[in-house]
Amino acid sequence: MERTQLPDTVPGRSRGGLAIGTGTALCVGAVLGPGALALASSAAAVAGPASVLAWLGLIAVSLPIALAFAALGARHPGGGGVASFVQRAFGKRWAAPAGWWFFWAVPLGVPAAALIGGQYAAAVGGRGRGAALVFALLVLAAAYGANLVGLRLSGRLQLLMVGFLALLLAVTIAVTSPQVERDHFTPFLPQGWASVGDAAVVLFFAFAGWEALSHLSAEFSAPQRDLPRATLLAWGIVAVLYLGLAVVTIGVLGGRAGTTTTPLTLLLERGIGPAARPLAAAAALLLTFGAVNTYLAGGARLGQALGREGAMPRLLATDSAGPGAEPRRPLTVLALSSVAVMLASAFGLLGLDSLFRATSACLVAVTLAGLLAAVVLLPRRSSLRTGALVGSAAMGVVLLFCGPFLLLPAALAVAAVAFRVRNLPSRATRTPRKA
Fold first, then answer.
1. Got the DSSP string for 206-275?
2. Which domain holds residue 52?
């Protein structure tokens, strides 16, 4: 079996673009976006107040998961991300499905995130679905343009935005906490314990950004030092903000928590009054831009690496620009695919809940594959390897709750294997070995 690896670095690229600050901002932007906008309500609709348990469980298990991916990225920096880790651990034949799961999860998750931001912006003037679609397309276009310019600029912009947004969300939690009512947490388990697992599937969309930063590991000036630090800082920020938002969403909004599509707006209105709508809209657009920006960046670099390896069309690995250029072709493929899915969702052919669950199914599969690779690649008897084992068990449980949406990663795995087999050189055309 061939054991050649997805490249650790992109030929012609030099490191030096990302430091701890910009790396933390990109990671927080990838994880924080949609979770801070709508998923607290989506989870409350599924499990009621018990959705807080799903938040707590995912926050806890995301720490060893995040650190495992950071350790792998620091040891093996490159655009291949999880696919390259899987290839190192289990061989080339298993890398293609992992790569396809992440790559095609991007044009499912990006439209969902952008449309949520669009809904917040459209709500300011009482506009409907058409305005939400326009705002979502603008977010996608801005992220596409930022990635064409390069990660140095987009990372610095995101550092400023994440600082502002973290402050805004912290203020929202602080000013609404006194309004939390204990009665809103009873009955605590209206749908039973199984609903907590269902809520975890929905919420996993908000915790699936940890592996995205591994695709950008080669962009760090010192990945072995800065990537783990940026990941740990990002986890701390995300954990505090997510848990705070989950508690105040249910404790303040009560029954409305599971029915509104703009919970952040309602919370801000409770805290600061009518000025909340435009402020929430601005925050929503910035949050979704952060998530879209990071996922496009990671997905494009993965597509380039897979194209170079022959696991995807080689056209994705060939850019007309010179060395050091951004991966424009896979970036354009992802952007156009996202537009198509966004239009289908805006016109009622795909629901946002279905997009969340489909994306989560793919990303759970990616995460599980990456963690199993970490179990093989990380030092034995180390805390990182133990964390990877714990994370693998947790992801296996979450995967079981994906239900029929498991068909999507299964179909992508079959397509990835079929593409690789079809493009393998035949025995007759292989170069004979020298005696």
1. GGTTTTGGGGGGGGBSSHHHHHHHHHHHHHHHHHHHHHHHHHHHHHHHGGGGGT-S-HHHHHHHHHH-TT
2. 20-422
